[in-house]
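Example record used in the benchmark description.
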Amino acid sequence: MVLLDGKSLAAEIKEEIKKETAAIIDRGEKAPHLAAILVGEDPASQTYVASKEKACHETGITSSVYKYPANISEEELLKAVDFLNHDNEIDGFIVQLPLPPQINVERIISAIDPAKDVDGFHPENLGKMMTGQQGFVPATPLGIMQLLERYAIETEGKHCVVVGRSNIVGTPVSILMSRKAIPGNATVTLCHSHTQNLGEICRSADILIAAIGKPGFIKADMVKEGAVVIDVGIHRIPDESKEKGYFITGDVDFAEVSKKAGWITPVPGGVGSMTIVALLMNTLKAWKMKYQK
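Model output (structure tokens):
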């Protein structure tokens, strides 16, 4: 079993980004600038945005966070998005999800300038991804593709099973894996909560990507011997026996599945680390699209 170490790979990519950013600054040009809109006090969102800020600091990318109360109106949030769309100092920004129930998420995402949509959620960027045009790929799927590429995982002609069909991970990564590209050229099955014979389908996978949002859902009897297993899930499980009062786990029963898998991502230290660095990659790309036309 080979560990697909997202943490160490992310550190390597951050060094690459740091060198590019330093070269930009040395030329007397403005450093790439990534901003985030954070609404409310969701702990997971706060942790993610703090990790983003730390990663920006490590690579020389400028970082800004715009914080708003949970009771913000949709119109006020749209004004904040419009402000960042027109702020020439900012090259890319994200609106951290989830948003409070009074906010229409699709309306907010659609209001983001596609050229600054470094999360890759805008319909225009999703459409470009579908057709292989230049745009932004959502950060988590981009991170997964980087893992596969840089660990030289063979994907061509392989059967890839994706469990989970969200617009953020499952559906985009299924498209990327099926595209005529390297990595890609896989035969993809996209599974979800209504899929029948899920265990049987998972056992047929050469590459299994778990993004179902249920802790420990993928068991060893659902995995083929030697398969590549990518665990997208991240869950904080209360546990008083732990120093922090909880432990982090994914959608895969790592302890048992790792005994059968040929390659597997850990949680934490796998896909989550790659998501942050993919966001930085998209920010640098946004800067290049803006200034190196």
